[in-house]
Amino acid sequence: MLPLSNLEKVRASPANERRQSDSAFNTTLRLETDLEVHEYKDLIKPKPNPRPRTASVDQKWHMVKMVKSDVQLANATWRRVTVKFINDMIPPDNLLYPGHLAKEKIENKLSIEVLKELGKSFRLSKKKSYLEINAEDFKRVLKQLLGNVVKEAEINALFMKVDFNAVGSITLNQFCTYVHLIYQDFFPKTITFLLPARGEPLPHREPICRLCENHNGTLITCSEHGIVSFWSSMSTLRKKKRIVSPNPERRTPKWITDFLIMSKYNKLMVGTGNREIQFFEISSFHPYCQISNFESIPLRLDYAAMPDDQCVIIFGDMDGQINILSIKSVGECLRLWKKKPKHENFIASVSLRSIISNPNIRFVCWTVHEDWVQQVKYCPQIKQVISCSNDANSALVIGCTISSVDVEQQMKFVKENSFSKNSLIGELEPPRTRSEHDQTTFKVHKGVKCFDFNKKKNILVTGGMDRLIRIWNPYVPGKPTDILHGHSAPIFYVYYSEEDNWIFSVSSDKCIKVWNATDYSCINTVRPKSHLIHGDLSTVYYSNLSKTLAFTTNVLATLSIKIKSKPCLLSLFDIATSHSDPVTSIKYNKIFKHIVTSSEGSEVKVWDVVSGSFISQFGHAHGEKAITCMNFDESLRRLITGGQDGNVKIWNYNSGLCLKELTKKKKEELIDECDPAEICDLIYIEMNRRSKYVVAVGWDQRINIYEDNFDSTVHFVHHPSKNWEEDLKNGHTEEILCIAQSASHMLATASYDGEIIVWKLMSGHIFCHLRAPMPFEYQNVSIDGDLSIKKLLFIDYKPSNPCKAQLISNGPYSCIHFWNIFNDGQLLAQFSACQKKGAMVTSMALNSSNTVLFSTDTFGFIYAWDIDGYCGVKAEEYPPPCLYLKHLINKNKFIGVFGQNNLWNIHKPETFEHPLIPFDVLTDALSLPEYISLIPKEPDESEATNNVETNYQILSSTSSKEADVSLHDELKAELIQGLKAMRIDSRKVHASDTVNGIYKILHYHELNKIPDLEIPSCLMRRKDDIFGTDFEYMKD
């Protein structure tokens, strides 16, 4: 253990302290709910204040958006909370299309015919290098194709989503890319299994050689000793039978190597260790015929039915050879073989040499691998065979069935043997080797054990002994397109589901992983302790019909995917959430009328503000690191995100396409790769039409400026410009937590040590330094006195007034500060913004007229401060009038939570969740009315007992007016004891109090006045309802 002096040195490092608080934050933070609260401005009643007021607050609608997170606060961990705001929301009357649902999106109305006709309208640009179309032509053509089913506003919105650079025209490549990415959003992003797995013991002790599925969803297994069993999708055994020859002279039964279902001919095809391929009736298990005398043992079988009664039978053997048997007139050939003499008086048998003389049958043997063939598959779409082995030099091979020069060799063979006496008995050709242009070889370390291929998506997935899953373009064998890490044992099975766009992988230790085939992120992991499947794996199979993973060990186990049912009403204990991880940022887009949210799971979601419906999402934005901040560019068409990985990315958030990555050069970074410089805040600055910049600040203590010009779109990765000289010499010495820009081209940054620096944006010179003094009788509640400043706001007056306050900061010392940045900086006001001792100010927001300031604290309270005329002439000694809004929620209309089942219409108050109360407010003791918890002083036990008895008498007397009900003495004593404990306990600062208290995101918007809900004349409010939200029928 380090001595105390060393511990103090380690604590003195802010970056190290941030890492410690981040770890505590990440392990305890949990998203609880999203809330929306409406509040009239005329409800803000000024408190008694000796300072005269110069003006009153305008009467307008205000909507405050809150995204709440549960954090167990310890010491100064609340400084890790980051908050973002949005101002000037467009009134709901100007929204594009109310009730915007997914089924009404214009993208869903673009059929294949419409896309083809629209593609013909793109013309060559002036540079003659690409096809493009301008906005007017795009609207005209789409209006002609779709008619009156779409509005012009919808077409404008679609054009702006594609034209993310706001140049006034789009290219054909941009439009096709957007449509392709939009259709990918229809695939599910998450998957849940029904745990544990359902299992049924096998009716034998021998391992299963293969698990197949019938056309009706019935699972069929075959053991190595020839016992075929039929199972339902729920792992229930239906019937079984042994299909091998019952020869009493044989001590051990035949070894079954593999089997397949020939559903077109209603047959079972079985490979045996006696170098045979046998056929059985699938309905009665009766033996039909067999082909014997192969040169090698068929280890792995595959079968493909072709048109015109043709099929291809392929098997791989121990010598690494691929044997191909092509049959024409399959039905006729099988009937002729059935008439042949029976082998061992059991099954009709024909030899391979006797059937290859038939012109309808062709047999070819290729030497492909240098090790056993692990899997083989014939792909009718490309008419080629894919096989794999554990040999690294020939791990996976894609080759033709018939060589391109085979016609000349066949003509030569026919000419030489046309008059031979042995022409009636075919001669087997020796194994041959394909030429280089007839096959594609993939070299993989330690070989490939399993694979899957999909021609429509052009995706090839492989897994092997190196525990890695590789994604390939089948036409580029040199390097995989992606490598998926996560398994700790050799890969046993892989499968690509085209319908769901998922990749399933199972390792030999029975660990199951499901991957999103769009961004290759792992969306679910199921370990043996969860699915409880015991024994060694023998086979794995995924059923597309029943959405079930089937496993065979010493049991047959099925693991079903949980299918989401139709939306239904939430029960009392089902709390709607918007993200599965804590929400880190939220932004409002007034052009598309979207709410964009991000989470610590590096996921971005887009919501419709009119109805609250989910629109789209994209994940893995910053890899495994969290998204810490977001912002839009000046056109509001691109989203800019900053992450814990130290990178800034620019997105077309409507399609989820990453346009640019802004990152520092590694040689310029101040810290190593294992400790990245986290981005804490960023802004977008437009100096003029050609000078646009992204400014990011964070743990590296520097102001990083990235150019965002059209010339910079050629490269994907961009590096920042050279840092300002004064930033390097006299800049911040601690982590920069926030940044703000004024209309007069001033830039303000605040750091962890409480220092505020105002910069001249044009020159990069320091304008002034600001440091707040410690308030009188201030008690430190954290190790360093909580000097950090997490939010800065500029007050832009029109006309400008150098005597007024121009800057507001939410720290340090749990206070809000008003600053005049002129004359070397002056502090005009400093006041505590929290009612509870130990609370810290987490965030702030201004309305559009700069007359009301909203702030939040770590206990979850939201305050509205009337700052109209505050610090307008001189410094202020008293705080502005304040009304905290959380306790007035019962007087306003709760709209709902993004992610809930029931959608709302912002134009219709009857669709709101009102009069329901948000779950966290309902269950938080600090949000209860004042007579229960909000008592300013700490009473003694006797006083508390008297007050509790008074409360009990009030409740009991109120109830007696409604009904003549008397409580027993025991019930009365128990009730008094419970209220007493609640009252005394609620005044103490517990970790549980702060868990439900921290708002991570607070946004302020202005809306037009929405009419109040009219109470029907037959209803009246209950007199004993303390919240005023319960009604009862009026008595006649």
UniProtKB/TrEMBL annotation:
<dbReference type="GO" id="GO:0005509">
    <property type="term" value="F:calcium ion binding"/>
</dbReference>
<dbReference type="Pfam" id="PF00400">
    <property type="entry name" value="WD40"/>
</dbReference>
<dbReference type="InterPro" id="IPR015943">
    <property type="entry name" value="WD40/YVTN_repeat-like_dom_sf"/>
</dbReference>
<feature type="repeat" description="WD">
    <location>
        <begin position="576"/>
        <end position="617"/>
    </location>
</feature>
<feature type="compositionally biased region" description="Basic and acidic residues">
    <location>
        <begin position="8"/>
        <end position="21"/>
    </location>
</feature>
<feature type="domain" description="EF-hand">
    <location>
        <begin position="150"/>
        <end position="185"/>
    </location>
</feature>
<dbReference type="InterPro" id="IPR036322">
    <property type="entry name" value="WD40_repeat_dom_sf"/>
</dbReference>
<dbReference type="InterPro" id="IPR002048">
    <property type="entry name" value="EF_hand_dom"/>
</dbReference>
<feature type="repeat" description="WD">
    <location>
        <begin position="620"/>
        <end position="661"/>
    </location>
</feature>
<dbReference type="InterPro" id="IPR001680">
    <property type="entry name" value="WD40_rpt"/>
</dbReference>
<keyword id="KW-0677">Repeat</keyword>
<protein>
    <submittedName>
        <fullName>WD repeat-containing protein on Y chromosome-like</fullName>
    </submittedName>
</protein>
<dbReference type="InterPro" id="IPR011992">
    <property type="entry name" value="EF-hand-dom_pair"/>
</dbReference>
<feature type="repeat" description="WD">
    <location>
        <begin position="484"/>
        <end position="525"/>
    </location>
</feature>
<dbReference type="InterPro" id="IPR051242">
    <property type="entry name" value="WD-EF-hand_domain"/>
</dbReference>
<feature type="region of interest" description="Disordered">
    <location>
        <begin position="1"/>
        <end position="24"/>
    </location>
</feature>
<keyword id="KW-0853">WD repeat</keyword>
<feature type="repeat" description="WD">
    <location>
        <begin position="448"/>
        <end position="473"/>
    </location>
</feature>
<feature type="repeat" description="WD">
    <location>
        <begin position="729"/>
        <end position="764"/>
    </location>
</feature>
